[in-house]
Design a protein that fits this description.
The chain has a 10-stranded mixed sheet, with helices on both faces. It has helices at 34-42, 55-64, 96-100, 171-185, 210-220, 224-238, 251-256, 259-292, 317-327, 340-343, 352-355, 372-380, 402-405, 459-475; strands at residues 10-16, 44-50, 106-112, 135-139, 152-154, 157-159, 193-198, 299-305, 347-350, 361-368, 415-419, 422-427, 430-435, 440-443. It contains 14 helices and 14 strands. The protein has 493 residues and is of the alpha/beta class. α4 packs parallel to α8, α5 crosses α8 and α6 runs parallel beside α9 (317-327). β12 (422-427) and β13 (430-435) form a beta hairpin.
Length: 493
């Protein structure tokens, strides 16, 4: 597909960080996200979209359309001196910005980069302007604090960690303002733009302005059990719950919490909710600017998350797990693990000029974050390059989702995962998972929350899936494991 210069769309990819499948209102959450919900009403929602389970690998796959190990980002940003574990994107793999820029697109990234190698390495760290972007404002690693962030950059300039920020500074507001700055700068230009808005929210630390937390407190006083059941019922009404799904009974964990822990859970979830609501508010402001500038109708907007929610930095073990479990309803598992809760994300696709007749529709079937690049290229009328930096680059692993957006059935494909030895393979509704232990087999058509291991009942199927995963792992530089693998920290970056 191709478009003339006048009709080529602007493209905005909005990536939340550590946001669970059910957090958005349009996916069942009690969190108030009217602006993202409006995009869902005007566009299409996917129910089977999957990510890589962790922030850095998901960003690598989004930017290149390939499984992250094959572009050097099998783990995080440490160089472990194996092809699949170099800690940053391979310079031989073109990013979406490097592909779109020669087609006349202005390219900007705002928010979390998380693709530059850290620690001891002979590699030069590569930042957004090294990888095809014209504009960057945000954090090249993890911001660590919303009121006084670290590791910040503006274009190629590092902002000192010692910078004193105004008393009313809040990182999410600053990122929203910067995204608007980039979009406003394109007014009057002859060519379209690509904006990658990679919000840090709602990644830890769990922080928000006090007045915004207070606004959310009352809704969480109902407690985990009631709120999870209400989320699940809304998911069923909205059509975003998998067939045969059911909530996982965590009432015993909730009931064993002390009153002090329950109160802490309420405050933590209210803060987490506020973080997402502030992000949504900024997205609404960006949409208002697009409309004011006459850019909105021909702008393709995709909204997704890099992985499922996490219990990290959310209090005691049971308290933290209940926070993550609510966000990942109705799935089990959390960020950095290959169970469905860790790898499931919302995906909203909005494009007013092209998708009016499909407004509000739901799309089932499985797809993956490797599909984002091919989908954006199709919308832009751009092809994956035959040559890049003097070589023939490896084609994207993902597929273009535009036909599925418009109602075509998603093709049946196998999918693969590995992160710090949490690994999985999916094919034809069956999923084999090993979370650093024995492989377990699940029939997701009947058991989407992965509660019933069928490996002993179907050993031949389990063996075939394990062989399929091993073949993929050998081809994509997943194995051999790095020698330092056992020493890697379990904490979130």
């Amino acid at each position: 597909m191709s478009y003339d210069v006048a009709s080529r769309p602007n493209i905005i990819v909005i990536l939340a960080d550590d946001m669970g499948y059910s957090d958005l209102g349009c996916y069942g959450g009690e969190i108030q996200t009217p602006n993202i919900d409006a995009l869902a009403r005007e566009g299409v929602r996917f129910t089977g979209f999957k990510n890589t389970a962790r922030c850095t690998p998901s960003r690598a796959s989004l930017l290149t359309g390939r499984y992250s190990h094959s572009v050097g980002v099998g783990a995080m940003q440490q160089d472990q001196h194996l092809p699949g574990y170099r800690g940053q994107l391979s310079a031989d793999a073109p990013t979406i910005a490097e592909i779109l820029k020669p087609h006349g697109y202005a390219t900007g990234v705002v928010g979390k980069w998380h693709q530059a190698v850290t620690g001891k390495s002979k590699q030069k760290p590569l930042f957004p302007l090294d990888r095809g972007f014209d504009f960057f404002y945000g954090t090249w690693w993890g911001a660590k604090d919303y009121f006084s962030p670290k590791f910040m950059m503006k274009n190629s300039e590092h902002i000192p960690d010692s910078t004193t920020y105004p008393a009313d500074f809040y990182l999410t507001h600053a990122l929203s303002d910067s995204a608007i700055e980039f979009v406003d700068a394109q007014v009057g230009q002859q060519n379209p733009f690509f904006l990658y808005l990679a919000h840090y929210a709602p990644h830890a630390p769990i922080q928000a302005p006090a007045d915004r937390i207070q606004k959310c407190i009352d809704r969480y006083k109902a407690g985990f059990v009631k709120l999870q059941q209400e989320r699940f019922e809304r998911q069923q009404e909205l059509g975003v719950a998998p067939d045969n799904a059911a909530t996982i009974d965590q009432s015993s964990k909730w009931n064993t919490l002390s009153e002090a822990d329950k109160n802490e859970w309420v405050t933590t979830m209210a803060t987490y909710g506020a973080m997402i609501e502030i992000m949504d508010e900024g997205i609404g402001q960006l949409i208002d600017v697009l409309k004011k500038n006459g850019q909105y109708d021909n702008t393709l907007i995709l909204v997704l998350s890099d992985n499922g929610s996490t219990p990290n930095h959310k209090g005691t073990r049971n308290l933290a797990n209940l926070c993550a479990t609510l966000s990942n309803t109705p799935f089990s598992g959390v960020k950095a693990h290959a169970l469905e809760g860790g790898i499931s994300s919302p995906l909203i696709v909005s494009w007013p000029d092209k998708l009016k007749e499909y407004a509000g529709q739901i799309r089932n079937g499985r797809c993956h974050i490797i599909d984002i690049l091919p989908t954006c290229l199709d919308a832009a009328g751009a092809k994956f390059p035959d040559a890049f930096k003097g070589i023939k680059p490896v084609q994207a692993d993902g597929i273009n989702l535009m036909a599925a957006v418009k109602g075509a059935e998603l093709e049946s494909r196998p999918f693969f995962w590995e992160h710090l030895q949490s690994r999985a393979v999916y094919r034809d509704a069956w999923k084999l998972v090993a979370d650093k232990t024995l492989w377990k087999l699940y029939d997701l058509s009947k058991d989407p929350a992965e509660q019933c291991d069928l490996s002993s009942k179907h050993p031949e199927r389990a063996s075939a899936l394990k062989a399929l995963w091993t073949e993929w792992a050998e081809e994509y530089d997943v194995i051999p494991w790095p020698s330092a693998r056992k020493k890697l920290p379990a904490k979130s970056q």
